[in-house]
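Hey all, sorry for the wall of text incoming. These are the two entities for the joint prediction.
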Amino acid sequence: MSADSDQHLAAIAAGDADAFARWLALAEPPLRRSLRRFATVVDTEAVLQEALLRVWQVAPRCAGDGRPHALLRLGVRIVQNLARSEARRHRLLPVPAGDELPEAEVAPAQPPDAALRAAVSTCRDKLPPQPARALAARLDDGGLRADRALAAAVGMQTNTFLQNITRARRLLAECLRKAGIDLDLELA
Amino acid sequence: MTTPAENLIEAAVTACRPVEPSGELTFHPAFFDLDAAGRERLFVATAQQRALERALASDGLTTTAEAVLQRIRSRRGVD
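and here's what came out:
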């Protein structure tokens, strides 16, 4: 049973961005999963980021309803409504079936456990230099700069940079699988 | 070796989504060059990448979360 993610709601509503960061660490995985059926019709990363900004903006008006995870449930509605709206705007229709489904039960993610953290860190340390550098550039940048700029910063052509990131993730997944960790199961 | 489709997918896995001056949400250009199967693979690759980021970050924040927080904090700086 997960703790109520609304423990952060009062601070978020008061404008505490650090509290929102703590909420994001729990809420991002289920919100991303809720976009699964929109994957072919919208850029889910763009939709998710915009929806998270809207959650931050409306959080002061989010009143609890006696059930847990009120802000997360509101987030699911916001992200899915935005996905539908963007699919229509880009004329990438039809919107996938399932619009009329009742509100799905949603729960925040558990923080990665120590064993998973250690395994990922160990596998990262085993990456060859070039994939490791490309991956580090993306992670350290926090989504601020385009890949062209990141590639230039590490002295790679953009295509080489992208190939190195793909290789890094593939090698990490293989290493984790050998350690008994299936990333696909972690995502489920 | 990676294929052209894999490069398109990797390009769109980034959390970097420039914001239009109008504030309008913009899709990554590579998204439009992918077919339905490619977009499905993009969704899975992005989710895997963020799962790895979550496990590597001491605060559990992914590059998606960092990008959103950056936008929130920069807006407050302007306000």
